[in-house]
Amino acid sequence: MDNDTNGDVQPEHKIILRPVIGLTENLPKRDLEQITVEAIRTHRRLRDTAEAKYEEWCKSPPVAGCDTAGPARIAYVTAMIDMHAQQTVVSTLLDVLGHIPLVPAD
Hints:
The protein is 61% helix and 4% strand. By secondary structure, the protein is mainly alpha-helical. The termini are far apart.
């Protein structure tokens, strides 16, 4: 990570998914927009799942012993990984599309 002139930490490079670019770069904009909207909806569902798993983890009893974080925390971490992976898909699709499409609330 590098610091910008304001002292904020900036990523060294943007993460993109080259296979997503290759699969979508020659699609008609209308089709690409449809795929992007669905990816955004999937991200929203994964975000909601991660939030629910976080709440479950917060309400779960402490885990005895040091050999595991416990099933509730593992479920939360897994949900967050899924959500962040999908965010990378969405970000890549938005780069290919060139704009943020209108996505109605679910």
